[in-house]
């Protein structure tokens, strides 16, 4: 599915990616590629840190519908 005019843009700096040399990349340059990679690594670290404390124990509260037929 192609949206708009079909012009792809660098996911980091939003520069237009025109030409065949960008056919297989979402970045306008190696610099932007590295920036995006660094972002992903930071996100991953953050998710791991938060994830250790965030255990999904919300299922206890999902007892709706049972014993509620009075
Ligand atoms: Zn870029």
- How is the biggest beta sheet arranged? 2 strands, antiparallel
Extended strand count: 2
Count of DSSP helices?
A: 1
Query: How do the strands of the widest beta sheet line up side by side?
Result: 1-2
Low-confidence stretches: none
Q: Would you tell me the overall average pLDDT? A: 80
Q: Which class best fits the helix and strand makeup?
A: mainly alpha
**How much helix is in the residues?**
25-40%
Strand/helix succession: EEH
Percentage of residues in strands: 5-15%
| Ligand catalogue | zinc ion
Shape: elongated
Rg (C-alpha, Å): 22 Å
The first-to-last residue Cα distance is 52 Å
Any overview of this molecule?
- This protein has a domain at 8-52.
- Strands 1-2 form a two-stranded antiparallel sheet.
- Helix content is 34%, strand content 6%.
- It is built from 1 helix and 2 strands.
- The protein is elongated and about 70 Å long.
- The site of zinc ion has 8 residues, from loops.
Please outline what is shown here:
This protein has 70 residues and is mainly alpha-helical.
Spell out the key features of this protein:
single chain, 70 residues, mainly alpha, two-stranded antiparallel sheet, 6% strand, elongated, binds zinc ion
What is this structure's SSE topology?
Blueprint: E1 8-9, E2 16-17, H1 30-53
Antiparallel strand pairs: 1-2
The protein binds zinc ion.
Zinc ion binds at residues 10, 12-13, 15, 27-29, 32.
